[in-house]
Amino acid sequence: MKPKKSLGQNFLNEDKILNDIVKCGNITKNDIILEIGPGTGNLTEKILEKNPKKLIVVEKDKELSANLLNKFGKKIDVINNDILKCYNILKYDIPIKVFGNLPYNISTKILIAFIKLPNLEDNFSKFIFVFQKEVAERIIAKYNSTYFGRLSILTSWKMNCSKIFDISPKSFYPVPKVWSSLVVLDPKHKIEYLMKPRSLEHITNIFFNQRRKMIKKPMKQLFSDYENVALKLNLDLNLRPQNLPVNKYIDICKLYEKLN
């Protein structure tokens, strides 16, 4: 099958890497698995070797979807759709484990779409995702580090995440220009309640669009009495956005929602 550049297709085909990815999922016979973007079915085949209860694959490419049906038949359920149009309807009796070698061009959109789901931890138990290495660094970054930003904050609000290993471009066809990384994300069972997840997106956008500026400027944009708000939240207005820990952004978001 010829990869389509428009869909960001880079097929992972190194046997050892595929086996290592599946190991990270700790698949049992009672598991329901969702695979995003299975492509030619290399990872699909490894998942099936673990005999899960059910394997659902979401593949946007019609030709690849037909190929997967021919290859695996009734062993899998194939959904020929864009994951961003159907991720919120995939609900079963038990939480799903999700695998995905995600297209570089929409990987962050896919992750954020899942993060914004209400009751995430009730519907999903684990995410095992391959990202571009730089994106993975942004996901796992801690405050006071170069990569810390919007994606770090949004992810750590609802997920515990860790980078497992890096993957060479040579493990893919066609060979991409960048390295990739495997990241495992476990939904938290207790999170800070926010009325609207998009409020946190909005606030982090404002802060990190000006990441080299002191936080005084974005605070001024968000609150008319920003100095009193900073005092209430014990914020040093001379800090940069990357110097604030995640819990401070949650506190800012809660107060912002309360006042709006």
Describe this structure in words.
It is a single chain. The strands form 2 sheets. The protein has a 7-stranded mixed β-sheet. It contains 12 helices and 9 strands. It is α/β, with parallel strands linked by helices and 260 residues long. The chain has helices spanning 15-24, 42-48, 62-72, 83-86, 107-115, 120-123, 133-140, 150-158, 197-208, 216-222, 226-232, 246-259, and strands at residues 11-12, 32-36, 54-58, 77-79, 96-101, 124-132, 159-167, 172-173, 180-187. The chain folds into 2 domains: 5-187, Vaccinia Virus protein VP39 (Rossmann fold); 197-259, Helicase, Ruva Protein, domain 3, CATH 1.10.8. The protein is 39% helix and 19% strand.
Features:
260 residues; alpha/beta; Rossmann fold; 2 domains; 9 strands; elongated
Produce a short descriptive summary.
The chain has 260 residues and is an alpha/beta fold. Helices cover 39% and strands 19% of the residues.
Instruction: Return the CATH architecture of the largest domain.
Output: 3-Layer(aba) Sandwich
CATH hierarchy class name of the largest domain: Alpha Beta
Report low-confidence residues grouped into runs of 5 or more: none
Order of helices and strands: EHEHEHEHEHHEHHEEEHHHH
Mean pLDDT: 93
Q: Give the strand order, joined by hyphens, for the main sheet.
A: 4-3-2-5-6-9-7
The CATH topology of the largest domain corresponds to Rossmann fold
Decide which structural class fits the backbone: alpha/beta
Given the C-alpha coordinates, what overall shape results?
elongated
Number of domains: 2
* CATH superfamily annotation of the largest domain: Vaccinia Virus protein VP39
